[in-house]
Known about the structure:
Elements: E1 4-5, E2 7-11, E3 14-18, E4 32-35, H1 40-49, E5 55-59, H2 65-74, E6 79-82, H3 90-95, E7 101-103, H4 116-126, E8 131-134, E9 137-139, E10 144-148, E11 153-158, H5 161-167, E12 173-177, H6 190-199, E13 204-207, H7 215-223, E14 227-230, H8 245-254
Helix pairs in contact: 1-2, 6-7
Amino acid sequence: MTLFRPCIDLHAGKVKQIVGGTLSDDGAGLQTNFESDRPAGDYGDLYRQDALTGGHVIKLGPDNDRAAREALAAYPHGLQIGGGIRGENAVGWLEAGASHVIVTSWLFDDEGHFRAERLDALVAEVGKERLVLDLSCRSDGAGWVVAMNRWQTPTDLTVNAATLRQLAHSCDEFLIHAADVEGKCEGIDTRLVEFLGAHVTIPVTYAGGVHAYSDLQTVHDLSGGKVDLTIGSALDLFGGNQVCYADCVTWNRERGGVR
């Protein structure tokens, strides 16, 4: 049963929706679809009132800690937190009210080589039940490879059945942004969604390319209900005109609302 999962994307301390593939260290070329005049806490409070579960706060770069803490305080233990999560700060974010920490780049060295010992250390520190692995990826033609450093650097970790099966032993959930279509509102990566549905054994949330409310049903059909969906730039909550937030809340309520 596919559910809608909410999100709060933070950039420079503001709630924003951006085209994920345009993120860079120097900010050159950044494409912003939406910047809210509402604080992050307002969104956290809204999701709490609507009893939405499994949502996430993503810190896209520096100067987002204050806004992230505000969102977590508005919905204690109701939101996951990602962006710059490392072994030394993971516990602090859980203490700040996050239900889970989401980690990607810290699991790799500077050259993009996966460091299994870092994952083992993080599991020992916070427990697999409080850990989400972000396997956000880019297509390499035949399949997908995990991309780190704001989705700019490809790694040596391939998103395949063996990877999903192995990593499922070390985390509670997967979060997967399709970085090639993220923020474009031009359609989801149907091949990736179908692949995830065929191979995941734990909860997984997909993000990227949603352009219609019907994508919830499409993801449900393609994945056999195994993949949840987060919606960003297309959502009216973030300035979009393709998907109504209230409809997504209703979708969840009609399906029990909790995976």
